[in-house]
Fold this protein.
Amino acid sequence: MSPVRVGLAGTGRIGASHAETLKALSAVDTVIVADADAQRARATADKLDIEFAPDIDALFAADLTGLVIATATDSHPELITAAVARGIPVFCEKPIAADISGTLAVVEQVTDAQAPVQIGFQRRFDAGYRAARAAVASGELGWIHTLRATTLDPAPPPAEYIPRSGGLFRDCGVHDFDIIRWVTGREVTEVYATGANRGEQFFADAGDVDTAAVVLRLDDGALATVSLGRYNGAGYDVRLEVLGSKGNAIVGLDDRAPLHSVEDQWTPSSLPAYPGFMERFHGAYVEELATFVGVATGQMQNPCPPGEALAAFYIAEACELSRREGRPVRLAEVRR
């Protein structure tokens, strides 16, 4: 088999982590990194003893087996389509694009392409979420009536990030929307979303919220709630509860969950809460990138094609419309 050469575009926090993961994968022979900030890319390459490309053109010219995209959102469409046009398989962190029209344009261009495009929804590779999906599929939970999802950050991101984040539903909640679809195998038909600002002014200045509550109706009648927040002082809290007529499955209820009971007989854990998503989902990110290498080399089927990301993005779009207009929104209103 030909040497596996994986290019990485973007060496910020998550990009640098991906570079380290790729280097450690036994199936990868060479990792080449590039960034709009060439000095940052070179520093990452030197630190990890991997290859450096001075710009994206040089990266594309490096005889790549696959390309991992961890750049800013506004660069995703161009990088995805340029790689696919060259026959290079792509892994891209969500989102595909900043809005629905941009996402649709990319999906249309890559749907029939020979090179696969895998979108990054790392929760699909987490052992807990996989176990919950298996429990639903096996029927051991009975029929599902309620899901409760939570994504609460311990502290907000930098102020300059918020105006280009896409907002709380598209940036943060989209992971919950995707995983609810994936775990249940059902589609969302209607949403009601509301939000509030209790923290820094920069959220309101960007037209965003720092706290949100969402109710989703699924196509089989089940209901899901999603709680989102940027100021969970107890720590990073990501959970999913799947409640059925025969039983339940709970993801994220481990010794590092930042939950504090006020009951007398509760014994607190001695372990600290996860500081953020990269620590909580480290194993999932490794499995996700290992899977991408399998996809790029033709050994595995694509587990998350662009259409899956579009479906989750539609839910986020409907939530934003619902929040702004203060009413339930059917998914048919935002689909194109």
Notes: The CA atoms of residues 5 and 63 lie 7 Å apart. DSSP finds eleven helices and 13 strands in the chain. The two ends are 42 Å apart (CA to CA). Residues 5-121+285-305 form a domain with the Rossmann fold fold (CATH 3.40.50.720).
